[in-house]
């Protein structure tokens, strides 16, 4: 059985007025909350990268490496602890940190190339 065979179209359920209408309406409300949270997360990520870009420029000008493995390890541990406090899967929190830290390091390497080519 494919995933589409099990698909429930919430919008259809909400419009039809059947026995699942209330559940569908509530799902739509909660999805709106998720959309708001996702937009806020993107805004926070953009701000995070504005700050890490400034860090990358400072590191490049000072001749520092793009990676700081001790800091990264400490951040992974701190985020795992924070995730547990919030009831979030620590592995997911760690995956998030690796994703953004790797992107920041790539950005730092590009900045270093630009600074060194001047």
TrEMBL record:
Residue intervals of the Chorismate mutase domain: 21-112
Pfam assignment, any one: CM_2
Compositional bias segments (type: Acidic residues): 1-10
Region annotation (Disordered) ranges: 1-22
Keywords: Isomerase
PANTHER family given in the database record: CHORISMATE MUTASE
Protein name in the entry: Chorismate mutase
Species: Bifidobacterium asteroides
